Amino acid sequence: xxxxxxxxxxxxxxxxxxxxxxxxxxxxxxxxxxxxxxxxxxxxxxxxxxxxxxxxxxxxxxxxxxxxxxxxxxxxxxxxxxxxxxxxxxxxxxxxxxxxxxxxxxxxxxxxxxxxxxxxxxxxxxxxxxxxxxxxxxxxxxxxxxxxxxxxxxxxxxxxxxxxxxxxxxxxxxxxxxxxxxxxxxxxxxxxxxxxxxxxxxxxxxxxxxxxxxxxxxxxxxxxxxxxxxxxxxxxxxxxxxxxxxxxxxxxxxxxxxxxxxxxxxxxxxxxxxxxxxxxxxxxxxxxxxxxxxxxxxxxxxxxxxxxxxxxxxxxxxxxxxxxxxxxxxxxxxxxxxxxxxxxxxxxxxxxxxxxxxxxxxxxxxxxxxxxxxxxxxxxxxxxxxxxxxxxxxxxxxxxxxxxxxxxxxxxxxxxxxxxxxxxxxxxxxxxxxxxxxxxxxxxxxxxxxxxxxxxxxxxxxxxxxxxxxxxxxxxxxxxxxxxxxxxxxxxxxxxx
Length: 497
Ligand SMILES: Cc1cc2nc3c(=O)[nH]c(=O)nc-3n(C[C@H](O)[C@H](O)[C@H](O)COP(=O)(O)OP(=O)(O)OC[C@H]3O[C@@H](n4cnc5c(N)ncnc54)[C@H](O)[C@@H]3O)c2cc1C
Known about the structure:
The chain is α+β, with helices and mostly antiparallel strands. It has helices at 3-27, 61-74, 125-133, 149-153, 162-165, 193-202, 238-247, 282-288, 290-293, 336-352, 354-357, 375-379, 404-420, 459-463, 467-477; strands at 33-35, 54-57, 78-81, 98-101, 108-110, 116-120, 137-138, 172-178, 184-188, 208-215, 217-218, 225-233, 254-262, 270-278, 299-306, 327-331, 362-367, 390-395, 428-432, 439-443. The relative contact order is 0.12.
């Protein structure tokens, strides 16, 4: 950017910081804070992270609506921050951008028979799991403790217990939403059912959920546990491993992840780690995962874990800071030849600069059981990929911005490899839009679960068959495209209501 523009932006930001800080201090509740000091490591990844002029910490649900109305009056961009893990490359808070942190809105209350809970919008997976565990119950959350429960759920929310209870988004019973106008509405299957459909898959494009009622599953005392293991295999076991994983039948109690990692300094030798998960006891789990255990792995650790520890294995993945331009691909199957090639590509990437890339770059594959999806259940929410159970993240991790181009080129190339044999090439999806005489058949060849997407791909790879109806509803609920930060349904500059 030319220097003159830079001065203009800086002056504008300084002006808005002073004025806005004073205005908001008067509008917001006593315990809310408004600061031009942006907290260190406030995001999981520094790559393309949002760059707000002001960081607002909401203390009440009413504060959130106040900030949205204020931002509208001044035409300032704003972004809600919950867990701060989203890695979309679509954030743009230039000028007087406002970040609204709702991590203090983290309360949860249970109903009398503990089958439902009312949560505030900023509760994390860790906080929600701890609350459910203390009542001998389960809630279908995503699998990493650091995530905002709703940050993950509003895009779908893949959970280890998907097979038993459904996606995190299916756990929602009703929600309170701050719309783009700043109006606060209730939504559920009976109140604003079209908004209800839209937020469950594309939530951040439609509003801010400040509270929600979710399903809770009481579990008899002593039975709230599962078996989990960490199985390490060497590089020469990649093909036999992929042959086993690609054909392993997943029952509803089962789920597995696998990822590539290195031994670290000095050799940075790549290896494969499989993390199988089974809701049940160890002997049943070992039977279910016998084909992997029989591969003569290098190392196996694990055992039965209480519910509150199910996500602990992912805590290192939650480490904040550093550059992590992640790319996602979703597939119907694991293609053996492709995955062998992908592993070799990972090895070559690490070998190109072991000290820069070799510590925590990875490729992670999450594999969930998927029952045959009926048309009815596919249409109940805007989440489009109910028939796809395999979601993959290509994750280069490093600190030097000069390596961005090499890292993103590699990650995008691996995504192309995975898409090429995704098993979705003939994936025709019928789309009918209510109140319109339309019945479109879309052919969507490539898919990315939105929460794992990068942001450079077409909208249909993320929103699938839901895209036309979502865009129609966006014109109704957010005609000025105020929620335009998270994989926006209309590209900035393309949108004319
Ligand atoms: C370490 C790690 C582990 C992960 N594991 C899983 C997993 O197991 N399963 C899975 O499905 N995904 C997983 N993901 C992906 C994750 O679902 C997304 O990154 C998700 O967007 C994170 O939400 P957040 O609240 O933590 O992040 P944020 O960046 O705070 O939020 C992401 C987006 O959601 C919006 N948002 C958040 N809360 C609300 C709300 N209450 N109302 C409206 N909009 C909201 C934000 O404005 C932002 O646009 C993982 C990601 C990471 C980094």
